[in-house]
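Running this now, will post back.
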Amino acid sequence: MSQEEKSYSEEYASYLERYELFGEDRPKLSPEEFDRLDDELLDLLALDAEGQELTEDQEERYLELMYLLVAE
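Update: finished.
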């Protein structure tokens, strides 16, 4: 593992592993892009956890974020 890779967060390192396995048709995110999109996803998940129903736009964005983050 290179020195650069060691400076990544655990979350980003996990994303890179998922990307290598499943992300061939998706854009590869920089650490900064990943953090921004991951924070946005967490905000949507928090709304859902609080019992708020997501709007259609929020649901669409949720699916888009899951795709971009190569999340399950």
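The first helix runs from residue 3 to 6. More later if anyone needs it.
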